[in-house]
Write the structure tokens for this entry.
Amino acid sequence: MKGKNIAIAVFSGTGNSLEAARALTAALTEMGRGVALFPMERSENHIRPDADVLGIVTTVACFSTYPTAWRFIDALPPGKGREAFFLATMGGFGGGMQGPVRHVLTVKGYRPIGSLVVTMPGNYGNKVLDEAKNKSLKDAAVSRIREYARELEEGTARWSGGVPVVSGFFAALAHGRKPWNMFRRIFPLTVAAEKCTACSLCVKLCPENNIALEDGLAVLGGRCESCQRCVAFCPSQAIYVPGKPSVQYRGTSLESIMSLRNSDCS
């Protein structure tokens, strides 16, 4: 990697991807790189003028990634030869999403230099939280991410990807509303009125601006992309799927997710 100043755009639901981005940032900083994180969902953010490397860190969803992340990637300004790398977290299968991301970056004039997808703890439908297993998964992911940072630094990183037809299909599907509407019908998020304290945290955190307070109660709209951020960070655990009890999982702290939300890379 030739560039010294790195801007990393992050989309994270329950926090796994943010922790991955923080691990990568720490490793690159130790190598003397200047690194700044900023959230994909804040449209006023952009790649700062002095950044000569772009990093994209997001979450695997629908064997691709969320509409919020795709909107950011699709709206990137011309790369003009700027280096770019990619990191994603998944629960099981990534779907080869690196291929479609690389295609967009290449068309826009970026120079893709490396990609990595790592496994992190499951963040949905946990009957119990296996702390030992989760710690093992996180430790292994962080170790691989630090190795990836060295590969980027030394110029030995590679950009892997899936079968173009398959990964392209999943990417096209993820751009639309059908998979997210289907997921919302199968796993309809509901607000427990007796638990909601109208703290408005979910309103602030929702990347789709899909939650509002009405008569002292959080109300979910129709644009949910099932990122689970509201479920993970609701302090009273008022947002849930009826008939499918699960233990609340957070991949990072509330302070970390709020710090990312409020950061500015301009």
About this structure: The radius of gyration is 18 Å. The longest helix spans residues 131-154.
